[in-house]
């Protein structure tokens, strides 16, 4: 295989392994819209990175973290419903990122690559970001696994048991932000959340324990990356969307398989 194909495989599989457990929590906690909000804000992070002369991924992490903190603060005031806040922050940050791009008159930016990913152009430096950020995110998930499960089952019960529910919720949001920054090059800003929730949703039918679902979600994610890349190379298709289509095909295939209760 060519080097760029091997780098694409390594990058996609690395993200899929981390996105599986994290996506399971997103599905359990019904936070897919929150993931979309953070991913849409990533374009603003990329733009700010270019404007300030820093790595765009640093800008993405900074903006996603700021958005997560703002959401926690606004939710605490209880003046608007969570879905309304998410809609405002999601579309507002995406639009602000597009407007900010107008100030980059002397810099050519491949907007399509950021919106829909360009997995076949992954560099060695991108791999370092992906595996570095992925290792931190995976370590955080393993460290907080039991407590995240506890607040997923019942936040009130977890609070009675003395768990810092707000801090755990914020930590979970930050882990999502980190994975979004790392996965941006793989499937793009608009499709990042799908790589987390579709494999997890496909694994849900076949798992009876949370750990099993997380492991299966990672495996389904890796299979989607392999299938999407093969289709992209075979028929000259866009890489990121092909990975998401492969994940959706796995979900539909799994939905047709009878599962014993």
Automatic annotation (TrEMBL):
Q: What is this protein called?
A: High-affinity zinc uptake system membrane protein ZnuB
Which controlled-vocabulary keywords does the entry list?
Cell inner membrane, Cell membrane, Ion transport, Membrane, Transmembrane, Transmembrane helix, Transport, Zinc, Zinc transport
Q: How does it sit in the membrane?
A: Multi-pass membrane protein
One GO BP annotation is: zinc ion transport
- Gene3D superfamilies, alphabetized: ABC transporter involved in vitamin B12 uptake, BtuC
Could you confirm whether the keyword Transport appears in this record?
yes
Q: Where are the transmembrane segments?
A: 6-28, 48-74, 94-116, 128-148, 168-201, 213-233, 239-259
Q: What does this protein do?
A: Involved in the high-affinity zinc uptake transport system.
Q: Which GO terms describe its cellular component?
A: ATP-binding cassette (ABC) transporter complex
Question: Record's CDD domains?
Answer: TM_ABC_iron-siderophores_like (cd06550)
Q: Does the keyword Ribonucleoprotein apply?
A: no
Q: Known SUPFAM superfamilies for this protein?
A: ABC transporter involved in vitamin B12 uptake, BtuC
Q: Where in the cell is it found?
A: Cell inner membrane; Cell membrane
What does the record give as the organism's lineage? Answer: Bacteria, Pseudomonadati, Pseudomonadota, Alphaproteobacteria, Rhodospirillales
Family (UniProt): Belongs to the ABC-3 integral membrane protein family.
Pfam entry (one): ABC-3
InterPro entries per record: ABC_BtuC-like, ABC_TroCD
